[in-house]
Amino acid sequence: MATDVLKLWPASSFCGSHYSAVSKIDITCGSSKKIKINTTMPYIEIKELQQFNRVLSETSAEKLVVIDFHATWCGPCRAIAPVYERLSNSVLHATFLKVDTDKVPAIAQKYNIRAMPTFVFLKGGNKIDELKGADPTGLTEKVNRLAGPPPSSFASGSKSSSKSLTEGLTSLKPVIDSRELQCLNEVDDHTLKGILGSDAKEGNFLESDADEQLLITIPFLQPTRLRALVIRTDPSKLELAPKRLKLFINHPSLGFPEAETFAPTQEFELTSKQVEEAEGTVRLDLRLVRFQGVGSLSIFVVSNMGGDEVTRIDGIDLFGEVMEGGSKGPLQKVED
Question: Which sequence ranges form a coiled-coil region, renumbered to this chain (predicted)?
Fold first, then answer.
């Protein structure tokens, strides 16, 4: 079986940044059929306090975070929403969040929100400014002033450096539903949540239990479009790194029998030489057309490099975009 093309980089070169949003893509498939892809939503819709705290903890202290406190019944909120979305599309070196004050009141209370819309500006987790009311000019001015000029990596026509090999990609960790993370055949003291969930911290790793196989299921809070998967293994333990992987989308209750028999959305097979040259950090580029409207991603680790009964994973990250609305299902073909 032919394997997919892989892009592999050293662990020292792994970093992330925003992906430039697009409004619509039509991909021709065969004769007159087209696949219609929903527009991207570059801001993050906050569903719970835990997600909000995770976003702040994973954002650098120098980066501006803008929070739009709104409510569905608020007319001015709806009026300024297109302005906020345009800013989130253009000011790519800032992080834009939306918080529905009725759904997540704890965050609104934290910032003493008394009127909607209210825009709060943070750096390093600290509030540095605020704007009340639907004022497009004032909002634009504050965002541009507080965000500052874009770093060189966002400049048009800038040359990519060896430290920005994931430039143009956005980590989807903030929209992972960490409460519903699941991994079958993990050992009790080295779990998936230890490297990807609320318990994640440096030095943790995921390890298999009875044999080398793992079945990881990662659910999202919103439908996503996946572009790349990064898997990291300790360079000194490369014989325990995954070798053959099968990916499935939108099967939140997938078990080992189904993973063995279902046709995967995409499949990869790595060699020990590839993993060694990448110093344990491997980026797998996904077939974009297949990874649309993803509500959950399942990663079936079939085997490892050394044929050992233990598989080890030290880090996982997913890159892509949050999709605006739509169901968590496959693309639909639209007639011309």
Answer: none
Give the helix ranges, DSSP H, for the chain: 49-57, 75-90, 105-110, 136-147, 193-196, 256-261, 272-277
Give, in order, the Cα–Cα distances in Å from 192 to each of 58, 126, 181, 232, 316: 18, 30, 7, 13, 9
Catalytic residue, chosen from 15, 29, 77, 183, is 77
- The tokens of 236 are what? 């000194």
CATH H-level, domain 7-17+169-334: superfamily: PITH domain (2.60.120.470)
Q: Where are the domains of the chain?
A: 7-17+169-334, 48-154
Q: Are 221 and 271 in contact (CB under 8 A)?
A: no
Is 77 annotated in the active site?
Answer: yes
> Is 74 annotated in the active site?
yes
- Report helix, strand or coil for 259: helix
Query: How many Å apart are CA 153 and CA 159, to the nearest integer?
Result: 8
CA distance linking residue 295 with residue 283, whole number of Å: 21
The DSSP bridge pattern shows strands 170-171 and 315-322 to be antiparallel
pTM: 0.58
Q: CATH: 3.40.50.150, 3.30.465.10, 3.40.30.10, 3.40.50.11030. Which one for 48-154?
A: 3.40.30.10
Alpha-carbon distance 189 to 290, whole Å?
Answer: 34
